[in-house]
């Protein structure tokens, strides 16, 4: 009986030892890219070139893959697309191996098309690196157990293009909490689409007004042309918040100056926790009195 438990214990210890010994390669992996971003003002059919210097700052070799992408980013998502500005970017080289301490130049070319229907765009070089695959042990001819930690670097390429400046942001949908309890956070969700031709900087706030208290939740973000943006803001009622609240949202946007607005109105019912406790206690007391149930707790006061 005891020999079986000892075998299981030794097996667990052996597995933990192998995993811990393999973590050295995980902790020793690292890449550094310079410069961190590029900005260009282009004309139709214009071509520009640039390069990124990638350095292996870890102590293990790194297999590197470089891809050209279009960035789609909002308050909760970072997505990549192969459309739009991604098709303007060409890269050389796209895959290689870096020894510890070694640096390599990644060259890219950005060629704007002859016809463009927007004036702002953002692409990226997405650089991914992982240590080489596990090696076989020469003595046992078995694969060593290891953990391969991937590293991803995103180098934005921000482009401004000539053309008509149309500032337009469309609210596709929005959701607000209907009922909240004290200390229960609620999400205000706004799905937006930039159907203009330039980048839309967003600022604003959600003004939440009740009978005895008011709150203001700030809004900030930005969305590129043709992109969708999910904006999420939170509000948590406090101990003293209760009753009906009006939530008036104002989103101001524009390329440089936020001169255009989007507005929404919602109503929220806040139920305080202390009110729920009082209702429960009152119900219990009423039920006990109606059914002539005596309290199990008695307090006896004696006079000396």
Give the radius of gyration: 30 Å
Please provide the ordered H/E string of secondary-structure elements: HEEEEEEEEEEEEEEEEEEH
CATH architectural name of the largest domain: Sandwich
From the helix content, strand content and strand pairing, which structural class follows?
mainly beta
Number of helices: 2
- What fraction of residues sit in β-strands? over 45%
Question: Can you identify the CATH class of the largest domain?
Answer: Mainly Beta
According to DSSP, the number of beta strands is 18
Uncertain segments are: 17-27
- CATH homologous superfamily designation of the largest domain: Immunoglobulins
Characterize the main sheet. 6 strands, mixed
Residue share in helices?
10-25%
The span between the termini is 66 Å
Mean pLDDT: 84
Summarize the structure.
The protein has 304 residues and is mainly beta. It contains two helices and 18 strands. Strands 2, 4, 5, 7, 9 and 10 form a six-stranded mixed β-sheet that branches. Strands 12-18-17-14-15 form a five-stranded mixed β-sheet.
Protein described:
With 304 residues, the protein is mainly beta. The chain has 2 domains: 132 residues, Immunoglobulin-like (Sandwich); 109 residues, Sandwich (Immunoglobulin-like). The protein is built from 2 helices and 18 strands. The strands form 4 sheets. Strands 2, 4, 5, 7, 9 and 10 form a 6-stranded mixed β-sheet that branches. Strands 12-18-17-14-15 form a 5-stranded mixed β-sheet. The radius of gyration is 30 Å and the shape is elongated.
């Amino acid at each position: 009986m005891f020999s079986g438990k000892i075998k299981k214990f030794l097996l667990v210890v052996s597995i933990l030892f192998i995993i811990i010994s393999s973590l050295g390669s995980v902790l020793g992996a690292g890449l550094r890219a310079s410069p961190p971003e590029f900005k260009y003002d282009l004309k139709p059919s214009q071509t520009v070139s640039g390069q990124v210097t990638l350095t292996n700052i870890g102590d293990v070799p790194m297999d590197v893959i470089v891809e050209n992408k279009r960035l789609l980013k909002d308050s909760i998502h970072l997505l990549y697309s192969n459309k739009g500005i991604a098709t303007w970017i060409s890269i050389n080289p796209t895959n290689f191996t870096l020894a510890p301490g070694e640096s390599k130049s990644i060259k890219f070319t950005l060629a704007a098309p002859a016809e463009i229907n927007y004036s702002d765009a953002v692409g990226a070089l997405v650089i991914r690196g992982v240590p080489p695959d596990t090696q076989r042990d020469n003595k046992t001819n078995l694969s060593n157990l290891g953990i391969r930690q991937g590293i991803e670097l995103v180098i934005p390429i921000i482009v401004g293009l000539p053309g008509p400046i149309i500032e337009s942001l469309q609210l596709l949908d929005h959701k607000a909490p209907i009922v909240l309890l004290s200390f229960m956070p609620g999400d205000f969700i706004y799905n937006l689409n930039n159907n203009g031709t330039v980048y839309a900087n967003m600022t604003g706030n959600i003004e939440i007004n009740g009978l005895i208290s008011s709150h203001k939740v700030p809004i900030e973000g930005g969305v590129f042309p043709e992109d969708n943006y999910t904006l999420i803001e939170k509000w948590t009622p406090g101990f003293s918040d209760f009753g009906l609240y009006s939530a008036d949202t104002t989103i101001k946007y524009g390329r440089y100056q936020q001169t255009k607005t989007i507005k929404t109105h919602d109503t929220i019912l806040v139920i305080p926790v202390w009110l729920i406790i009082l209702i429960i206690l009152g119900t219990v007391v009423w039920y006990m009195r109606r059914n002539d149930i005596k309290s199990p707790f008695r307090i006896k006061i004696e006079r000396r």
